[in-house]
């Protein structure tokens, strides 16, 4: 058999109904060309993806999350075009997939629903961008830095050096706290209690000064103090201050340094840093009864 005959050998015949009956013949040549289109197309798409990444790295008006989103969406569009071209060469009508999708949905059932939910949620995250790569977020009681936002999952790196992968649908449907949405400045606080005999105004000035003297605490917005409550045995205050952080551990370090500063400053000024205590008073008749029993 000659090469021409092999090339034109029928592999299959597509028969489909779209208001009329039609027949499309697929030969060995069609299959070979379609396979080459897929292989070459994927190779070209990967090269274009790398070039796009290098080009986006020079753009200063885009953040890292936006660059990743554009890169992934461009790659997905290119792959779609490649496989659509291969289907056209194989003369496979797109109407076939209407039935295929219906069959898959019945087969996968509720399991497929979660998959599609995560895919749609991933697209929403890339478009709306409520979080970006390198943001500090808190979700499901886990705090960490975002290092990847994919079509299916959302990945963060915690302070314990653990990588956590969360489904995109969980990120969108549950409470998510973004500590650094627009910048890395956060407002945090430490709490302290002083004795009832203390001078409140003087103590407040000392607290503000102690927080402001800590290296790394921002001057704007300046530290401030709120009188929280009259406690059972202490006057309780919250000392607020702003810092620039790139991870949650850094904010804990600043809080610790401010606590050190408050302790040293207040003790040096003679302000009593109070602690919960309980005074017990016994009545005279109770004392007499106790002595009688003895």
TrEMBL record:
GO biological-process terms attached to the record: transmembrane transport
One GO cellular component term noted in the UniProt record for this chain: plasma membrane
Domain Mechanosensitive ion channel MscS: 115-181
Cell compartments where the protein resides: Cell membrane
Residue ranges constituting the Mechanosensitive ion channel MscS C-terminal domain according to the UniProt record: 189-273
The keyword 4Fe-4S appears for this protein: no
Organism: Candidatus Desulfacyla euxinica
Residue ranges crossing the lipid bilayer per the database entry: 27-48, 69-90, 96-116
Protein name as annotated: Mechanosensitive ion channel
Pfam families the UniProt entry points to: MS_channel_2nd, MS_channel_3rd
Alphabetized UniProt keyword annotations: Cell membrane, Membrane, Transmembrane, Transmembrane helix
Membrane topology recorded in Swiss-Prot or TrEMBL: Multi-pass membrane protein
């Amino acid at each position: 058999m000659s090469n021409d005959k092999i090339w034109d050998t029928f592999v299959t015949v597509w028969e489909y109904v779209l208001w009329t009956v039609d027949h499309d013949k697929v030969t060995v040549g069609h299959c070979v060309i379609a396979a080459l289109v897929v292989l070459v197309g994927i190779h070209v798409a990967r090269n274009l993806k790398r070039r796009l990444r290098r080009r986006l790295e020079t753009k200063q008006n885009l953040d890292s999350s936006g660059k990743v989103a554009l890169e992934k969406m461009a790659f997905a569009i290119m792959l779609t075009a490649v496989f659509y071209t291969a289907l056209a060469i194989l003369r496979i009508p797109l109407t076939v997939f209407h039935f295929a999708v219906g069959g898959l949905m019945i087969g996968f059932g509720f399991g497929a629903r979660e998959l599609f939910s995560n895919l749609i949620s991933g697209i929403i995250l890339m478009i709306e961008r409520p979080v970006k790569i390198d943001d500090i977020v808190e979700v499901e009681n886990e705090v960490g830095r975002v290092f990847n936002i994919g079509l299916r999952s959302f990945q963060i790196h915690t302070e314990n050096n653990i990588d956590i992968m969360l489904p995109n649908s969980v990120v969108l449907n549950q409470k998510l706290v973004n500590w650094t949405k627009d910048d890395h400045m956060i407002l945090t606080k430490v709490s302290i209690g002083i004795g009832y005999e203390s001078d409140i105004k003087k103590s407040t000035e000392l607290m503000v000064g102690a927080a402001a003297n800590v290296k790394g605490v921002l001057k704007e917005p300046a530290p401030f103090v709120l009188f929280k409550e009259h406690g059972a045995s202490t006057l309780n205050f919250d000392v607020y201050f702003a810092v620039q952080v790139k991870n949650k551990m850094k904010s804990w370090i600043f809080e610790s340094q401010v606590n050190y500063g408050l302790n040293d400053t207040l003790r040096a000024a003679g302000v009593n840093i109070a602690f919960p205590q309980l005074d017990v008073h016994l009545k005279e008749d109770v004392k007499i009864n106790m002595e009688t029993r003895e």
